[in-house]
Design goal:
Rossmann fold; elongated; 34% helix; Isopropylmalate Dehydrogenase; five-stranded antiparallel sheet; 3 domains
């Protein structure tokens, strides 16, 4: 516990008394002050000096708040009431600068007012703030324990998705996507939003009257949008898959029909979109507390995958991660423990998969497992358990033992870690965009962006 805060009552103050504090200006300071104040002036986040890299400028009131900190903590200290400030801001304060703020007793007046000379300088000695503060000093001696402030960590929401959507929007011509049965607000609006962002060109496959009714109800503009009429959801799935199989569309997107209904058509041997690769699902997660893109597979298609299935599931995810910008994806094969234990099948699978990667049966990534979840995403946890792994703490892909475990993990990330998820099905002839009714607008756009990046990579 830190030392006690003690004040200087009015009777003890002398002209010339002074106190100071020094604070390093960080990006977190600027971001947090912006969150609290609501000040969105771009200069505080993207300001550029002549010929320099972007150097955000601190809010002027952030510097002024340091004056308040000296007055409240040091001189006169606890019990002081700030009555007025008259400050002049003489130079900008940038991230990385150490600011020293000093207050000096200039005058005293009955019954308890004090005028303080205020001054702030940066680490080069340049004066950045100057002025006066009028305070009401306490009349009695006071001391107080230093309040333990709550720890605050900045979480950057959707940093991964914003990059993906931006990349997809710059691909040139957007890809054509067959949207199967977009007959509610969420599925129709998501497809049209992605179209407006120049990520996809949606072709709506479903009962035309129903689609137009939804568009009218929610004021969606269907001008220039092609509609392929169908009789019902099963027919919508079949016709949407046919568009992809013919090459007319480059991706498939789930609308308001059930996933099983769509995937049934995808999996048909003669009319579907099957390849030699096992079809699998990948969640692309944007986790505010994790510094990189995180892929989780398979949490939606393969219920109890075999060892052979997992080979394709991993290969699908590795190839996706490479398209998303990861040069050599690191794959953590998850289990309940980090040692091979014959009674836990997932640990045996993990050991076999790692050896298969050593033999070139799985390529393009670095595999390790079995790993418990904490060891996969936390280097500190791995170090405590004396696990030496090239994957621990920096996993790009998490392979879950089965659908049940993956579904639970995905929902935990979404609801406890405030993560956003994009859903994509791989291993078919075209990427398949799977979205949920609970998905945010950004998640839907990110799912379309992932499909667009995949489709364009196949063209190359």
């Amino acid at each position: 516990m830190g030392k006690m805060l003690e004040n200087r009552p009015w009777s003890e103050l002398k002209v010339g008394d002074k106190a100071s504090i020094t604070r390093l200006c960080s990006e977190s300071d600027i971001e947090l002050f912006g969150v609290v104040s609501g000040d969105l002036n771009p200069s505080h986040y993207t300001s550029v000096d002549e010929g320099d890299k972007p150097r955000p400028v601190a809010h002027s009131m952030w510097v002024a708040s340091l004056v308040s900190a000296v007055i409240g903590n040091e001189l006169p200290g606890p019990g002081t009431v700030l009555l007025r400030q008259d400050l002049e801001y003489l130079a900008p304060v940038h991230v990385g600068e150490a600011i020293t703020v000093e207050v000096l007793v200039e005058t005293k007046a009955e019954p308890s007012t004090v005028t303080l000379l205020c001054r702030a300088v940066n680490n080069t000695g340049a004066v950045v703030l100057s002025g006066h503060a009028l305070v009401k000093a306490p009349l009695t001696k006071q001391s107080a324990a230093r309040h333990q402030l709550q720890e605050v960590k900045m979480r950057v929401r959707r940093h991964v998705f914003q990059e993906l959507i931006g990349r997809a929007g710059m691909l040139g011509a957007p890809i054509t996507v067959a949207v199967a049965h977009p007959c509610d607000q969420v599925s129709l609006g998501g497809a049209l939003d992605a179209g407006q962002k120049n990520i996809i060109i949606p072709i709506l496959v479903g009962p035309e009257d129903k689609i137009r009714s939804v568009a009218k109800e929610f004021n969606y503009d269907l001008a220039g949008i092609r509609i392929v009429n169908s009789e019902h959801s099963h027919d919508s799935a079949a016709k949407a898959v046919a568009l992809c199989k013919s090459g007319e569309t480059k991706a498939l997107m789930k609308g308001s029909l059930h996933t099983d209904e769509l995937m049934h058509e995808v999996a048909q041997r003669d009319t579907g979109l099957r390849t030699n690769r096992r079809i699998s699902h990948v969640f692309v997660f944007d986790v505010p507390t994790y510094p990189r893109t995180l892929l989780v597979t398979d949490a939606a298609i393969n219920i109890y995958p075999t060892l052979e299935d997992k080979v394709d599931i991993i290969q699908n995810a590795i190839e996706l991660a490479v398209v998303l910008g990861v040069d050599v994806p690191k794959v953590a094969i998850l289990s309940a423990v980090e040692t091979v234990y014959p009674k836990i099948t997932s640990t045996l699978d993990a050991a076999a998969l790692c050896k298969m990667a050593d033999r070139g049966q799985i390529t393009g990534g670095i595999l390790d497992g079995p790993l418990a979840f904490d060891n996969a995403i936390s280097a500190e946890a791995a170090e405590i358990k004396k696990i030496h792994s090239p994957v621990s703490g920096q996993a790009d892909i998490l392979l879950v033992p089965d659908l049940e475990a993956g579904n639970i993990l995905a929902k935990q990330l979404s609801y406890l870690a405030e993560a956003d998820a994009a859903g994509i099905v791989l291993g078919a002839k075209v990427p398949i965009i799977l979205t949920s009714r609970a998905d945010s607008v950004e998640s839907r756009l990110a799912s379309c962006a992932v499909a667009a990046l995949l489709a364009k990579s196949k063209e190359k």
